[in-house]
Design goal:
The chain is an alpha+beta fold and about 260 residues long. It has seven helices and nine strands. It binds adenosine-5'-diphosphate (ADP). The site of adenosine-5'-diphosphate (ADP) has 21 residues, from helix 5 and helix 7.
Length: about 260
């Protein structure tokens, strides 16, 4: 039961009077569990055929005669980009269900943040993406973290900066050291987020419901995953934004030695 209102307590801190609304959230909880189970099941089923599809695309891309055929080569690059996008989405769904069942596992290794950012950015240099992406590598900062998961966080933030863009405005990435932590920022000059929506963007399944955002598809799990994954690494994640001007998403990770 969720309670919203005022309670009066006695000296033993026992509530003796309550005025407000009591809401039964059992059904809501059950609904969420059903939704999560369904997502987990569908994602598992989709993973196998998608892995095969990805392998076939790779085989075709490696075929010599395709390289001399510009149209086929360009089509295959587009196909590969879309298959990767779908694989990323399915992995996100699987991570949501792993988080739910407490089965998320971190495979921590040492790596340089600059290297990971460059690697993630490379995946965005497909001909279909017109947004200019700027990154000037910062100092060499070594972290001990799950490289794949942090890559997923950076990928989600850059994908959003591109998705909620306006007229191909540039997206900038940066990385610096502050109070013994690595700080990674992704800033855009896109739609921005209204003040009332900003505190909710990291909630699961939360999507801003305004005129501009409504036509942009999504599930509202990208930022939720970023939040969970960064907190699992003992880091913090923040969103700053001005409606109509743009947004800055930044997160911190503890540095290996300081
Ligand atoms: P999705 O993009 O699938 O809806 P996310 O969890 O990634 O889910 O984001 C939640 C919401 O936060 C989005 O629906 C969008 O309204 C808002 N949002 C996220 N990133 C940005 C951004 N860079 N600029 C403007 N709005 C954003």
């Amino acid at each position: 039961v969720r309670a919203k209102g005022k309670a009066l307590f006695n000296t033993d801190l026992q509530a003796i009077r309550f005025s407000g609304i009591l809401q039964d959230i059992t059904e809501q909880k059950k609904d969420e569990v059903r939704k999560n189970d369904f997502i987990a099941m569908v994602s598992h089923e989709l993973k196998t055929p998608l892995t095969s599809l990805k392998a076939y695309v790779q085989v075709l891309m490696r075929k010599a005669n395709i390289k001399s055929d510009e149209f086929s080569a360009a089509t295959l690059i587009k196909l590969d980009t879309q298959v990767n996008k779908m694989a990323g989405l399915i992995n996100s769904f699987l991570d949501v269900s792993r988080l739910d069942s407490g089965k998320i596992h971190l495979d921590k290794k040492e790596f340089l943040i600059n290297d990971l950012i460059l690697e993630v950015l490379e995946t965005f240099f497909a001909p279909v993406i017109i947004t200019p992406l700027h990154f000037k590598p910062g100092p060499d900062l070594t972290v001990m973290a799950d490289r794949e998961k942090i890559g997923q966080v950076i990928n989600n933030l850059v994908s959003n900066a591109i998705k909620y863009n306006v007229g191909g405005m540039p997206v900038a990435l940066s990385c610096h050291k502050e109070d013994g932590k690595a700080i990674i920022c992704v800033s855009d000059q896109g739609l921005g987020i209204k003040e009332e929506d900003l505190p909710h963007v990291f909630e699961r399944f939360y999507r801003v419901n305004d005129e501009q955002g409504r036509s942009i598809s999504g599930f509202g799990i990208g930022l939720y995953l970023c939040w969970e994954l960064i907190h699992f690494h003992d880091g913090e994640i923040y969103a700053e934004s001005e409606w109509g001007k743009g947004s800055v998403f930044s997160f911190s990770l503890p540095l290996i030695s300081d």
